[in-house]
Amino acid sequence: MKHLLPILIFTLFFSCQNNAQSNKSQQAVINAEPVEVPLVNGMAKAYFASGCFWCVESIYESVKGVEESISGYAGGHTKNPTYAESNTGSTGHAEAVEIIYDPKIVTFETLVDVYFTSQDVTQVNGQGNDRGSQYRSIIFYQNEEQKQIILKKKTALAKKRNVKIAAEVYPFQKFWVAEDYHQDYKKHHPNNSYILNVSVPRFNRFKANFPNALLKKGY
Q: Average per-residue pLDDT in the chain?
């Protein structure tokens, strides 16, 4: 047993070193200057993390003015993260969506309303049974105006409901697109048990609490 002690100490030392480096890298992400994504053909982009991206992707695609919702990873310090790596919680990333939208039809402010309406705003590091930092809630801002919109809505919601809002507010840095099989997952796998038991009920809760006039026909 004694000969194992140096090995154990060595392992714990490097584990602590790695955790410290990871925390330092994550703090750098949080304190970074935001990156503003330019309009392309009049279309803007926004980024949100709110639990499983299969659920969030389909929610945003129901909103008028949203052209597309893409599943991916954001908010972390690891380059080129994979789904398997993200699920360990070690990358710093959360499952996120990139929303491509027409700002003449839907505003960033409305997209933030969609965000808060479509989740349990009090749950830390997860939504429902999906738990871990990879499922935490983050709203990303690209400039000071967006940051103030987010903070004002977050403060107002906390006061209205008398709760602590779990959503973190990060400067946007980079969005990593997830593997192909994650894209439009609900649409391609409507009978999947997770879709039927988690995604669909979550969408229905959102729809019941969001103005119908702001949703596309057929939703």
A: 91
Query: Which residues are CB-neighbours of 209 under 8 A, at least 6 positions away?
Result: 117
Q: What is the CA radius of gyration of the chain?
A: 19
Q: Residue 29: pLDDT band by 50, 70, 90 thresholds?
A: confident
Specify whether the CB–CB gap between 95 and 135 falls below 8 A: yes
Asked whether residue 38 is assigned to any structural domain, the reply reads no
| Domain harbouring 96, CATH code | 3.30.1060.10
- pLDDT of the residue at 14: 41
Catalytic sites, residue numbers:
52
Q: Is residue 14 part of a domain?
A: no
Count of domains forming the chain: 1
What pLDDT score does 21 carry? 61
